[in-house]
Amino acid sequence: MKKVLLSAVALLAFGFANAQEEEKSANGGFSKGDVFVTGAVTFGSEKTGDFKTNSFELAPQVGYFLTENIAIGGKIGFASYKEEFSGSDIEDMAGFQVGAFGRYYFTPANQFSLFGQLGLDYASMEDKLADSKFNVIDAGLGLGMNYFVSSNFSIEAGVAVLGYSTNDNGGDGADATNTFSFGGDWRAVTFGVNYKF
């Protein structure tokens, strides 16, 4: 009787562990060696009387898990910004961006995980009307979260906490604009979709 009882307990424990593993797999999560793709596509338009602005940005990112908790990655992007007044262009800018980031995930194997991110970006923009170029370097520390809705797809949200940027304003003797921010801009919370391979 004792052997039957122990066998039944062992069988139940094995079944429970197996069910937990299947549930974990079905709910997603990250592990060492995983590759993920995420990014942002934004479009904005605003009009006040005869004044109109349009903006567009495409910035895909790819990341790789070096360890269970640490992911590194890069991004490349394109952005444009245009202002019009009474049908005439007053500003028309476009350019590209490249960047690198590192993330630390606190509970990467779970369906829900928080992460901290450190990133460095370089952007080069050209003002077509003024025939000038300017370069911007951004460094930032942020917080984010991933929530897996399936084994491969997750919803991602993030917010900047600490940031520094410098804009050379075209160089050639122009004064640079240096910006420091702390505490995050809660109006600029980002949302996206993350796909894990």
TrEMBL record:
Source domain of life: Bacteria
Keyword Lyase found: no
Protein name: Porin family protein
InterPro entries named in the record: Beta-barrel_OMP, OMP/PagP_B-barrel
Keyword annotations of the record: Signal
Pfam (any one): OMP_b-brl
Organism taxonomic ancestry: Bacteria, Pseudomonadati, Bacteroidota, Flavobacteriia, Flavobacteriales
Keyword Signal: yes
Ranges of residues in domain Outer membrane protein beta-barrel: 9-197
Secretion signal, residue range per the UniProt entry: 1-19
